[in-house]
Amino acid sequence: MNFIKKANILQLFLLISVLYSCKKQVHLKPISANLQEETLPKMKPLTNEVPKLTAEYVNSKKRAIEAFYKKNWPNNSLNGGFLVAKNGYIIFEKYEGYSNFRKKTLITADTPLHLASVGKVITATAVLKLINAKKIDLDQKVNTILKEFPYPKVTIRTLLNHRSGMRSYSYFTDKKDIWDRHKILTNQDILNLMATKDIGLESKTDTRFAYCNTNYAILALIIEKITGLTYKEAMKQMVFDPLGMKNTFVMDYEKDRKTVVPSYKGNRVEIGMDYLDAVYGDKNIYSTPRDLLKFDRARSSSDFLEPELLSQVYTGYSNEHKGLRNYGLGIRMTQWKTGQTLYYHNGWWHGNTSSYVTLRNENVTIISLSNKFSRNPYNIRKLSVLFGDYPFKLDKDEKEE
C-alpha cells in the first residue's frame, strides 16, 4: 500500500514538473524566422514637438536658405527636391525639373526619387529596431543567422559600420568566371557567390573601415531571415506605414523598373538600369523629402532606441587614421577637433544624387534629392551654420539678415 502511495506521489510530481516545464516554454521568446505582426518592432512618429517657431525666426532663416538655393542651383537647375525644417516645421522647400525629360513630367512634393545610399540609413534603422527588440544582437555573428555566410568573424555591428572587410559585390561580380553580367544579380546571389566562389576578404574583419555596399545587401537578407518577410514588405511594415511615408517604397525590380523615375547624366541623357539594379538594402528605396522628414523626426523620438544602443549608433568607428570623416552605425559623421559633430549620409547611384543631414542638437533636417547627376546636393551641409556652431562658411548674401 505504501508502495502504491509512493508511486502515485512520484507520478504526481512528474506531472507537475512536465506542466511547469511547458508553462515556462510558452513564455520563451527565441529568435524567430517568422515574427508575428504583433511582435514586429515598428517605428513610431515623434509626437509633442517643441514649441512652434516664430515668424521672425522662420523669415530670417528662409531668406538665407533661399539665397543659398539660388547660388547652389542657378536657373532652377536642381531637378529634384530640397527641404529644410526645424522641429518638424518646414522652413523652406523647393521642387524643380522633370522626373522624366522625355514625357516632360514635373517633379512635385509627391514624386518618389531614388535615395541611393541614403537608403542605408533606413536599412540600418530597421536592423537597429530588431536589435532593440532583442530579436538579434548587435555583436551577433552573421553566420548564426545566415548559415551559408562564409566569414566567421563578421558581426552585425561590423556590417553596420563598414568594418567587415568584405569586398564590394560590384567588383567581384564584374569577373566573367564569377558572374554572367547578362543575368540580373540578387542579394541571395551575392551570398551564394561568397559562399561558393572563394571570394576572400579584402581585409581582416574589424581592422579598418572600408565603405562597402555588400554590407548592407547582407543586412537586408538578415532582416528577411529574422522577420520572415521580404525586405520590401518588412520596410513597409516596420518603417514606411507606421510613419505615414506614403510616397516611399522599395523598388521591386521585376514589377517597378519600367515605372519608377529614371535617372540622367548631367546633360540629360537617360541612364538605363543594369544587372546590379535588383540588389537592395544598400540602395533601391524611393522617397521624397517630406517623407524623409517624417523618418528623421521619428529617429529623434525617445521611443526610437534604448539610450545605450542609441549612443553606439552615433559613435565613430573608423579611427585608424586621424581625420574629420567618420562612420557610426548606418550614419556618416564629420567630427571637428573643436568638438562639433555633423551627422549625415550621401548617396550616388547612376544619375541619382542625394544628401540627408540631421542636426541632432538643433532638431534640424536638411534634405536634397535629384535624379540628374550633380554633386551640388552634397553642399547642403553648409547650411548647418545657420542653426548651430558648425565651422562652415556662407557667402555674405547667404547669411541671415
Task: Please tag this protein with its features.
401 residues; 3-stranded antiparallel beta sheet; Beta-lactamase; single chain; 15% strand; disordered N terminus; alpha+beta; 7-stranded antiparallel beta sheet; 14 strands
Task: Describe this structure as you would to a colleague.
The chain has 401 residues and is an alpha+beta fold. The chain is 31% helix and 15% strand. The chain has helices at 2-27, 55-72, 119-132, 156-160, 169-172, 187-196, 213-227, 231-240, 253-256, 289-299, 307-313; strands at 80-86, 89-96, 98-100, 105-106, 113-114, 249-250, 263-264, 270-271, 285-287, 325-327, 332-335, 341-349, 352-359, 364-370. The strands form four sheets. It has a seven-stranded antiparallel sheet, sandwiched between helices. A three-stranded antiparallel sheet has the order 5-9-6. The chain is globular.
What is the secondary structure topology, with strand pairs?
Blueprint: H1 2-27, H2 55-72, E1 80-86, E2 89-96, E3 98-100, E4 105-106, E5 113-114, H3 119-132, H4 156-160, H5 169-172, H6 187-196, H7 213-227, H8 231-240, E6 249-250, H9 253-256, E7 263-264, E8 270-271, E9 285-287, H10 289-299, H11 307-313, E10 325-327, E11 332-335, E12 341-349, E13 352-359, E14 364-370
Antiparallel strand pairs: 1-2, 1-14, 3-4, 5-9, 6-9, 7-8, 10-11, 11-12, 12-13, 13-14
